[in-house]
Write a structure and sequence with these properties.
The chain has 7 helices and 6 strands, in the order E-H-E-H-H-E-H-E-H-E-H-E-H. The chain is an alpha/beta fold and 179 residues long.
């Protein structure tokens, strides 16, 4: 079994390291041998760099939040995939995304050894790039993936990859654990 997860709003409360109610227990209840990954859009540092607005998080803030969130969940995925593409076009956005991806990869690799950070627009959900990559890396057919998320873009990414989709609330309440 291969299960992927969005991060904010699926595993933890958005913009925090606090696990959502029931998530830790649902992860602990996964069958032994289940391979897992996180596929998340985290473009905040790119927006911070381009727009110069301090309310957007830094790379270090997000890396710390992920480390604290994984510790609070008492869980480590096999892969951590992060898209930093902002969804915006232009040389300034592309350049910032590439710089942030490099910084992110350095700061977060120690947290989850299987971390890949990309500025490629094909990785930004609803595009299927992260799910396609997870299937290749974990040697699974896309149809064998169950992707769990909380947003329409998560569902669209799963559909585009040919994966199954479960809403985060269904996963926590047991409906996502038995596929």
């Amino acid at each position: 079994m291969l299960i992927g997860f969005d991060w904010d709003g699926t595993l933890v409360q958005t913009f925090t390291a606090d696990p959502l109610p029931g998530v830790r227990e649902a992860l602990a209840a996964l069958p032994v041998g289940t391979r897992t990954f996180i596929a998340a859009n985290l473009p905040g540092p790119v927006s911070r760099q381009v727009l110069g607005q301090s309310h957007f998080p830094t790379v270090e803030e997000i890396a710390d939040r992920i480390a604290a969130g994984l510790a609070a969940l008492a869980w480590r995925p096999d892969l951590l995939l992060i898209s930093v593409h902002s969804g915006k076009n232009g040389d300034d956005w592309r350049s910032a995304a590439e710089a942030v991806a490099h910084d992110f990869a350095r700061s977060i690799a120690a947290i989850v050894p299987g971390t890949v950070v990309s500025a490629d627009p094909a990785w930004r959900k609803p595009a299927p790039g992260m799910l396609d990559y997870a299937a290749r890396q974990l040697q699974a057919d896309a149809a064998a993936i169950v992707y769990v998320g909380d947003a329409p873009s998560d569902q669209e990414a799963a559909q585009a990859a040919g994966a199954q989709f479960r809403w985060a609330a269904d996963f926590v309440h047991g409906e996502g654990n038995n596929t």
